[in-house]
What we know:
The structure holds two protein chains of two kinds. By secondary structure, chain A is mainly α. Helix content of chain A is about 55%, strand content about 5%. Chain A is built from eleven helices and three strands; from the N terminus they run αββαααβααααααα. Chain A has helices at about 15-20, 40, 45-55, 55-60, 75-90, 100-105, 110-115, 120-135, 140-150, 155-165, 170-180; strands at about 25-30, 35-40, 65. In chain A, β1 (about 25-30) and β2 form a beta hairpin. In chain A, α5 (about 75-90) crosses α8 (about 120-135) and α8 runs antiparallel to α9. By secondary structure, chain B is of the alpha/beta class. Chain B has a domain at about 280-360. Chain B has helices at about 1-15, 20-30, 40-45, 50-55, 60-65, 80-85, 90-100, 115-130, 145-150, 210-220, 240-245, 290-295, 325, 345-350, and strands at about 75, 105-110, 135-140, 155-160, 175-185, 200-205, 230-235, 255-260, 280-285, 305-310, 330-335, 360. Chain B has a twelve-stranded parallel sheet with strand order 1-2-3-4-5-6-7-8-9-10-11-12, with no helix packed on it. Chain B is globular. The relative contact order of chain B is 0.05. Chains A and B meet through α8, α9, α10 and α11 of A and α2, α3, α4, α5 and α6 of B. Chain A: Pathway: Protein modification; protein ubiquitination. Chain A: Belongs to the SKP1 family. Chain A: One of its GO terms (biological process) is protein ubiquitination. Chain A: Pfam families: Skp1, Skp1_POZ.
Amino acid sequence: MADNADHIDGDDNEDVRAQQNLIKIKLKSSEGGIYECGLTAAKMSDLVKNMVESLGTDAVVTTEPIILGNEAVTDAALKKIIEWVEFHWDDPPVDHDFEDEKDRRNEELSHWDKQFIDVDDQALLFDVIAAANYMDIKGLVEVGAKHICSKIRGKSCQEVREMLKITNDFTAEEEDAIHKENAWIYAKD
Amino acid sequence: MSQIVKSMKTSLETTDDGNEDNIQQTQIYAKKSFNRFGDELFGHILSYLTFKDRFQYECVSKRFQRRIFESVVYIDIYAFNGFIRQNTTIAQTLATIARKCPNIETIDSIQLREFYGSVYKVLTIFHNSCQYLRQIYCLLRSDYYQLIQRFGPMMTRIHVYDPLAKHSLIQCHRLSHLRVYHHLSDVFDTTSGQLLANNLHTFSFNHSLTASGVLFEAFIAGNQTLKSLTIYPSIDCSKNMNEVTERLSRLPQLRELTLHLHLTDCQTLNSLPFCPQLKRLKLDLKEEINPQMLDPLKHCRRLTHLTIHSIGPKFDTNSLFNCGNHWPRLQYLSIEDWFYERGVGFLSHISRLPALQTLKS
């Protein structure tokens, strides 16, 4: 089994990650709800990861839950976030030999992520994105951002305002001027 | 729900007199509004829009206008292709675009092939407005003298379509990605034999009859940094690539290899056991894949991505026998051939790959 060419790089050891995810820690939402989450999954949040590392794993497991004080971390948002990290914790680690993160930016969302993020309640959707941003879960923020941009695509500016609950603060003249400046985008290739 | 909508309407119609109901309604409204996000997250979300879409949605609101362009760090000037084709006066429009996107770091002009004058003009306009511009990707032609003079030191990725242009390469000190459309001799000075591109990260060339082994030897000496290599076959050359691939083990950083192989060129793969550090391998084969051919691959134990494209008649499933032991880290496997039917044997081999995440077959 020992194969010199096959030693494991750094923290990428799959087995250790799987074992650590059997350890459960408690996360507390801003509304007071307490939820369990696997340690490896929870550490996809850089905020949680830093807390665990400064407090020590033992302390986190045995003592009080980790408090996520941001108001976007509602019970419902935290439940969604835990669902996401519990699905994604064993994703392959970023390979620094390649531009993985750059490539991923342009990739379409997976079927699972699409279904996960297609939330009818826009307040909850935005809570999940804001909470993921607060908890520093880059992959989930990306899923939310791609989802919103795919919803924007193909709509008129007015439809986008309605969808995103934004009021138009341009005058009609200002809007016309911008349209004129940007007319080049309609040229056919 | 209808009640909320109703009272929301009222709250929008009446002026804010500070009563509690109003504040509560504003908060409900605010939670669903995109404006609830702070500037950084607001801009980050919009960064997933395409380049052209940003211009389309600039006028959604003033806050959109302020944030929608700040994350544009890369542009492919092929986006202007249609516009440049139809218009003779482009300078003003491009200057406006450049002004709106001041954070551009990289300009990709490789796909804009036809208009030399336009490439130069576009680059100049963006260079004047974008203070962070430091990387240009370019298709090199022999008449690009002025372009190289001015932008050569910024060029990090180059495609050499015209062999006469190769002598300009020496002026591009920061070059990291190079594609030559002809032979390996395109990276050597014709008279002095000097190597024109050193310390590359990514390189691709067409394999030819003429002394590939010797030239490749000299190329390796100046490019120990190489991480990714692609070799295409030349139309006029059916010789196997053995003399090139047997030298690959002397590229210590090599992680990615793409080979397009001719018929009867299975010898070439015999060199692969000497590249145990390879992580990504793509093979384009012009013949039937059999277990013997793929046998050398079992020594590439660090493979994370494997793509096999074959126009041969049949993929022999037994080629993947025991693959789980050979490739413990394989995440991505893609097999394309003309033989669509995959039997139970195929799946049972594949299911033994412990790290597999993506299968395209």
